[in-house]
């Protein structure tokens, strides 16, 4: 798929709890969907541990390669929340109290409750711009093309919606799909390759599903910035499925 007019993005998921399997990440799905709606092409997702050298090296690598970088996780009040200071190190700037964040959080808490742990959440790289957090007050931040978000899904989503209106995007990336039950990928392969060749501006993917009993098959998804082309390609895929003696069903199969 060629989306040269669309900005590109990478998501960096930071957290030992993701890598250990203790916590299941749900933020990538949300961000991928919203970025497509904004016309930002998600190109890569990385999951990395709470290790300073790894965070610094990864952030510096991906911010040079993509138009937008979104990090999730590691900006809470505990000792293992090190994302903020690592971002400061990556940009070569001091990690210091952010005047606006500090004042906002100081006002929010009762006297004596804005303790040292919470003060960490108001300490950011010099020059950072705040990302509002309407859920739990402690903000995220942007510096350069790096946008630092919370790991807790509800808070991350609220932060992203605060940030979204400021993000330079492009033409929305549209998705169209069709599926066929009791259909094997191998029967579609040649015809699908020919359709992809006719629509080089689309990403056409084939995704088998196995749900048990009689609910197995293949879903075909066309994705791109040209909605009319996506619809035309899926119409051709539907005709291909029908030619194999299977009824094409619009959309993706139910979960």
Plain-language structure description:
It is a single chain. It is built from nine helices and twelve strands. It is elongated. The longest helix has 17 residues, at 227-243. It has a six-stranded mixed beta sheet with strand order 2-1-3-8-7-6, with helices on both faces. A four-stranded antiparallel beta sheet has the order 10-11-9-12. Strands 4-5 form a two-stranded antiparallel sheet. α3 (52-65) crosses α4 and α8 (185-198) runs antiparallel to α9 (227-243). The model has no long low-confidence stretch (mean pLDDT 95). A hairpin with a 5-residue loop joins β10 and β11 (216-224). It has 255 residues and is an alpha/beta fold. It has helices at residues 16-19, 27-38, 52-65, 83-91, 99-108, 116-120, 153-163, 185-198, 227-243, and strands at 8-14, 41-48, 68-72, 95-97, 123-125, 129-131, 140-143, 146-149, 174-181, 203-210, 216-224, 249-250. It folds into two domains: 8-166, MoaB/Mog-like domain (Molybdenum Cofactor Biosythetic Enzyme, Chain A); 174-250, EIF_2_alpha (Alpha-Beta Plaits), CATH 3.30.70.
Features:
6-stranded mixed β-sheet, 2 domains, single chain, Alpha-Beta Plaits, 12 strands, alpha/beta, Molybdenum Cofactor Biosythetic Enzyme, Chain A
Could you provide a short overview of the structure?
With 255 residues, the chain is α/β, with parallel strands linked by helices. The chain has two domains: 8-166, MoaB/Mog-like domain (Molybdenum Cofactor Biosythetic Enzyme, Chain A), CATH 3.40.980; 174-250, 2-Layer Sandwich (Alpha-Beta Plaits), CATH 3.30.70.1130. The protein is 38% helix and 25% strand.
